[in-house]
Amino acid sequence: MPVCLTFGDSNTYGTPPMVARGVPERYDRGVRWTGVCAAELGPGWEVVEEGLPGRTAQFEDPVMGSFMDGRTGLRIALQSHGPIDVLTVMLGTNDIKTRFAPEPGRVTAGIACLLDIALSDEMQLRHGRFRVLVICPPKVREVGILKGEFLGAESVAAALPDRYAALAAARGAGFLDANNMISVSDVDGIHLEASAHRVLGAAVADAVRSL
């Protein structure tokens, strides 16, 4: 049975749009895009969820903890699961928080580091070779209770799709721009409504099959 490992942050975990802090919520399995993707791929596939709210591609978060660094998380995930056939990576949203002084090239460099790990001989041989799908997350909006953490983030996010696409092409990875099909919620400007999860899950399933 082919296995797809989905590596990401709160939008892979399934966090609904936030109206208050400190209230842990999560969409049900069938609502999350990972669950939708699994249903679309069918019983012949296994979809493994590795979404962590707050995860970055490359930063130890001084507020949320050093374990938010996706470089460490990806190594752990790739050594905890397997063998896998496809890895999806949808990260970058948390890297454009104001406290990380973001700029497009730096955010893209974080994704490049994750590709370096995933496509390394060590990891590829461990799993008997697997394909990677880079997903550019939907652009953030500076609204709602999280606005203060993302001041200036909209301009950085606007430059990411083209840069992610170029990086994926250069590394021989698949690419999917979530901005072509969904947008973030008007409630908090970061997370996805259930309807967006449905659309994204189906799109990722199509992209995985194309690999």
UniProtKB/TrEMBL annotation:
Q: Which residues form the signal peptide?
A: none
Pinpoint the SGNH hydrolase-type esterase domain residues.
Answer: 7-198
InterPro entries from the UniProt entry: SGNH_hydro (IPR013830), SGNH_hydro_sf (IPR036514)
This entry's Gene Ontology molecular function terms read:
hydrolase activity, acting on ester bonds
Specify the domain of life of the species encoding this protein: Bacteria
> Would you tell me the protein name for this molecule?
SGNH hydrolase-type esterase domain-containing protein
Q: In which organism is this protein found?
A: Roseisalinus antarcticus
